[in-house]
Amino acid sequence: MDFIVEKMKVEDWGGVRSIYREGIATGNATFETDVPEWQEWDRRHLGDCRFVARREGQVVGWGALSPVSSRCVYAGVAEVSIYVAASARGEGIGKTLLRTLIEESERKGIWTLQAGVFPENEASIALHKACGFREVGYREKIGQMNGHWRDVILLERRSEVVGTY
Predict the structure, then answer these.
(1) What is this structure's pTM?
(2) The dihedral sign for the CA sequence 6, 10, 15, 19
């Protein structure tokens, strides 16, 4: 493994933004059409569940969690975002980031992680399943992108250590 995973810092935003933009350009990573400004991105993501993968000082991947709702009953449920630079895919970076997010989320009391993935993003689906996620739903034509309806596969991972009684 020639990369390290560490907590994301504000100074990492340039690399995170670049990789996010790369993901958006594929058309199969997100419904987003442009990268938000730092303040908006920061507001949408949990402050203590953000990580970057770094190789030779450069950000080559990132992962973060977002709350799914402001209602207190969902305080232990978060949505996963994982992005890896095209030049670094297939090297285990995504899996390491996702496993790191899982461990940190459990330390923070999160009992369920979820992800919405376009069916065409087979690598992301395989990554999530390899890390203990299971398919729990299929949202047909849930949103439009460039004038075309898109489906989303819902994946979920329930913690075995948080929220179990």
Answers:
(1) 0.93
(2) positive
Residue-by-residue pLDDT tens, the chain, 165 positions: 699 999 999 999 999 999 999 999 998 899 888 999 999 999 999 999 999 999 999 999 999 999 999 898 888 999 999 999 999 999 999 999 999 999 999 999 999 999 999 999 999 999 999 999 999 999 999 999 989 999 999 999 999 998 865
3-state class (DSSP) for residue 13: helix
Taking the C-alpha atoms of residue 16 and residue 26, their distance in angstroms, rounded to an integer, is 16
Alpha-carbon radius of gyration of the chain: 15
Q: 131 by DSSP, 3-state: which?
A: coil
Q: What tokens does 111 get?
A: 């009992």
Beta bridge partners of 155: 115, 135
Q: Are strands 134-145 and 148-158 parallel, antiparallel or unpaired?
A: antiparallel
Cβ proximity of 156 and 105 under 8 Å: no
Which tokens go with 72?
């207190």
